[in-house]
Design a protein that fits this description.
3-stranded antiparallel sheet, 5 strands, alpha+beta, 171 residues, two-stranded parallel sheet
């Protein structure tokens, strides 16, 4: 049976979906429709971890995730999980990490199809020139998330409106 719950965040309402004890989708809910449903413990735990992320007390997730995708997409999404909180890497870095340095477009497409926003941190991926390219939930949200993560590392109690240049980690 598929389950769904919702979480109001500083950047919009998110829906969290799952089946058989694993989260399968975390995305922004633009419909404005909300239906109260019975929420199993494992889905409530995923919601709790996202709440902790947004309140600044969690930087890595441990909930069970099973996103639906192709084998190649799963390889790319697994590589995204190695990008630490508050840092950024490039699409090229991910392509190199998975042993496919000539497949930057395929990597970018797989990143763009990530169904597990925030949990699988596709917002931490930037262009080789430092450009904040692409994010299925919108560049405004990507900028907010990068500001938030960088700021949580440096000064957790204070918020800023300026986007600090992302720290780029070479993999």
């Amino acid at each position: 049976m598929e389950y769904r719950t919702y979480l109001d965040t500083p950047i919009g309402r998110m829906k969290i979906e799952g089946v058989d004890g694993a989260i399968t989708v975390v995305d922004f809910d633009e419909t404005g429709q909300y239906k109260s449903e019975e929420v199993p413990v494992w889905l409530e735990e995923g919601k709790r971890q996202l709440e902790a992320y947004f309140n600044g007390s969690l930087t890595a997730f441990s909930c069970r995730m099973e996103p639906q995708g192709t084998p190649f997409q799963h390889i790319v999404w697994k590589a995204l999980m190695s990008v630490s909180f508050g840092t950024c890497v490039t699409y090229m870095d991910i392509a190199r990490q998975i042993g496919r340095p000539r497949s930057i477009r395929a990597v970018a497409n797989a990143i763009g199809r990530n169904p597990m926003l925030i949990l699988v941190p596709c917002h931490r991926i930037i262009g080789s020139n430092g450009a904040l390219t692409g994010f299925s939930a919108g560049l405004e949200r990507k900028i907010w998330l990068l500001r938030y993560e960088n700021h949580q590392l440096e000064e957790p109690k204070v918020r800023t409106q300026e986007l600090r240049k992302p720290k780029v980690n070479k993999i």
